[in-house]
Specification:
The strands form 13 sheets. Strands 11-18-16-13-14 form a 5-stranded mixed beta sheet, with no helix packed on it. Strands 4-3-6-7 form a 4-stranded antiparallel beta sheet, with no helix packed on it. The chain is mostly beta strands. Helix content is 0%, strand content 50%.
Length: 617
């Protein structure tokens, strides 16, 4: 045996050695790597490494502090992991292991290795912050730990207090704290491995500091087995989201409780009735609050879902059980339990005095026709109303012009007026607001005149020359009117004039005349303008003398009637005498005269000349 002084020794050249012992290498090496796993309240797996490769070992275990030889011994095990059961919950245990190399060659015992059949015990060194009230509600039984104050050491074992629930059930909690603002968290050891897993078993946590109360609802996982589960709560002054259920804290408190999972208490019966025992609705669209009594009273899930089945009557029901009538007859109201029982309760409600509203209207042309192809043609529209028993099945017709145009009467007779599409609507007269529509296509329609604007050529509104003329003009809209022609006419006012078929106005007497252009189609549209006439030399009847003389018609084409017995001379505008005659039977024949204006001179017996202008057309 030799010792070597390394360069990095105490002073680079000295080595101090004291109490050197030499022992023989054992022929049977002792086990190594003692550990435990899968610890529960009553069992654990003891594991070691067979350093001697002997294949056989002895194990002894007991409550921590036991004297070897008084513990429980497992002799000659060939397993390097040995499961032990029958342990006591929340108890510290120790175990030792020895290799058996055969032939009586045994290693030294190795151990003890200590383990706990329970949960870690957290703690707090300060009593300034603690959970003063913790309670649950809506469990089959509940926790109520009120005004508990601070527990010495910061950990309260309240596992004797339990909240009962069932798989998929829920319960609520309320936690009130003393001592400033804290973070709060709850863990539940759903897999009963004596570890509160922060990643998978934290069922509530805050993310910021608060003074409480902290409340919430905890849902039991659907496949949770029956039995007891541990729940740990923690109010932590220095953590807004507590993450260590085993923490040794400076200012906090931890409390443990039990959750007991029991079989759910299933619903056994549901009794349904209308509020106050009422079983009828007698007003239009009336309502009735439905009620359900669930047994047993302690059913784990006493909730239910409402539904209604229409029979001879009809109604709807909301989630709160409010039944609304819509049609006379009977309906069946059902409350269905939300648990796994499959229990239902029913009641029959009789409905009367309902107004059956229209639900649909189908519109079409008679015989299914959807076109009008003749000018100003008609189509009888039809409407089918549902339901057939609608209280008021009447409707009102209307038409909306689109690319085409039409009118419709109260009986639904559609009359076309312009090519294109129109939409025909039938609107229900009840309170339903229901409408039905159909599109009808119109073709081959005459386009009627909508307006005529009349003016003198170039916008002129006067004639100031004696016997002057003015060409009248008319603008017809729309430009594509099927018949854009019109007829000229004139209405004499204070003045007089004539107008020919081409719209040439000829002045005869001073004053205003009204010129009219009347559309030749069926529209009845006219356009008018007033023309003012001046500087005319015509002499009116009775302007000379006192004899009564009447001349008509004027203007004229063939004959003019003159009521007088005097000699008549006809002079043209150039002053030339063109006709002298006594009016035969008071009728002067001017048929052979050229068109134009003439002066009629009447010589009376008193020697006076009477003059009047006439127009030959």
């Amino acid at each position: 045996m030799a010792w070597h002084v390394p360069a990095a020794g105490l002073d680079g050249w000295r080595l101090y050695i004291d109490e050197v012992n030499f022992e023989a290498i054992p022929s049977c090496l002792a086990p190594t790597g003692l550990m435990t796993s899968n610890i529960t309240n009553i069992s654990a797996d003891l594991t070691f490494t067979d350093a001697a490769a002997s294949g056989t070992a002895n194990i002894e275990y007991g409550v921590a502090g036991f004297t070897q030889g008084t513990g429980t011994v497992i002799t000659g095990t060939t397993n390097t992991t040995e499961n032990i059961t029958g342990l006591t919950a929340d108890t510290e245990y120790e175990f030792y292991v020895q290799s058996d190399c055969g032939g009586g060659d045994l290693s030294l015992w190795v151990g003890p290795y200590t383990f706990l059949t329970g949960y870690c015990t957290p703690s707090s060194t300060s009593a300034l912050t603690y959970i003063d009230n913790f309670s649950t509600s809506n469990g089959s039984s509940n926790i109520s730990n009120l005004s508990s104050g601070f527990t010495a050491g910061g950990y309260f074992d309240g596992t004797t207090q339990s909240v009962e629930s069932y798989a998929s059930g829920t319960f609520d909690f309320n936690a009130e704290i003393v001592g400033g603002t804290v973070g709060f968290a709850i863990w539940i050891d759903w897999n009963n491995d004596l570890v509160f897993d922060d990643a998978t078993e934290k069922v509530f946590n805050t993310t910021s500091y608060g003074s409480g109360p902290f409340t919430g609802t905890i849902t039991v996982p659907a496949l949770t087995a029956l039995g007891n589960y541990s729940m740990r709560t923690n109010a932590h002054y220095n953590a807004s989201n507590p993450s260590d259920p085993c923490n040794t804290a400076s200012r906090a408190e931890f409390e443990d409780y039990t959750i007991t999972i029991i079989p759910p208490v299933l619903v056994t019966s549901i009794t349904v009735q209308g509020q106050g025992g009422v079983s009828t609705i007698t007003t239009n669209a009336g309502t009735l609050q439905m009620e359900a009594t669930v047994l047993p009273a302690n059913a784990s899930d006493a909730t239910y879902t409402w539904s209604v089945t229409n029979g001879t009557g009809a109604a709807t029901i909301d989630a709160a059980g409010l039944l609304t009538a819509s049609a006379d007859g009977d309906v069946t109201v059902t409350a269905t339990a939300n648990d796994a029982s499959g229990i239902t309760g029913t009641a029959v409600i009789t409905i009367s005095n309902q107004i059956a509203l229209v639900t649909s209207i189908t519109v079409q042309g008679q015989g299914g026709v959807s076109t009008i192809t003749t000018n100003a043609g008609t189509l009888q529209m039809e409407a089918t109303v549902l339901p057939a028993n609608a209280t008021d099945a009447t409707y009102t017709w209307s038409v909306t012009n689109g690319t085409g145009a039409a009118t419709i009467d109260a009986a639904g007779l559609l009359t076309a007026s312009a090519d294109g599409d129109v939409t025909v609507t039938a609107t229900a007269n009840d309170a339903s607001g229901i409408t039905g529509t159909a599109v009808i296509t119109l073709s081959n329609q005459n386009i009627l005149v909508t307006s005529i604007t009349v003016q003198g050529q170039g916008g002129i509104t006067t004639v100031s020359l004696d016997d002057g003329t003015l060409q009248m003009e008319a603008i017809v809209l729309p430009a594509n009117a099927s018949d854009g022609t019109y007829t000229w006419s004139i209405v004499n006012g204070t003045g007089q004039a004539t107008i020919d078929a081409a719209g040439l106005l000829t002045a005869t007497h001073n004053g205003d005349v009204t010129v009219t252009a009347t559309a030749n189609d069926a529209s009845g549209i006219t356009g008018t303008t007033i023309i003012t006439i001046t500087n005319q030399t015509a002499v009116g009847v009775n302007e000379n003398g006192t004899i009564e003389i009447s001349i008509y018609p004027n203007p004229t084409q063939d004959f003019v009637t003159i009521v007088t017995t005097a000699t008549i001379k006809t002079i043209n505008v150039d002053g030339k005498l063109v006709l002298t005659d006594n009016a035969e039977n008071n009728i002067l024949n001017i048929k052979d005269l050229a068109n134009g204006s003439y002066i009629i001179v009447i010589n009376t017996t008193d020697g006076l000349n009477h003059k009047s202008r006439i127009v030959k057309q």
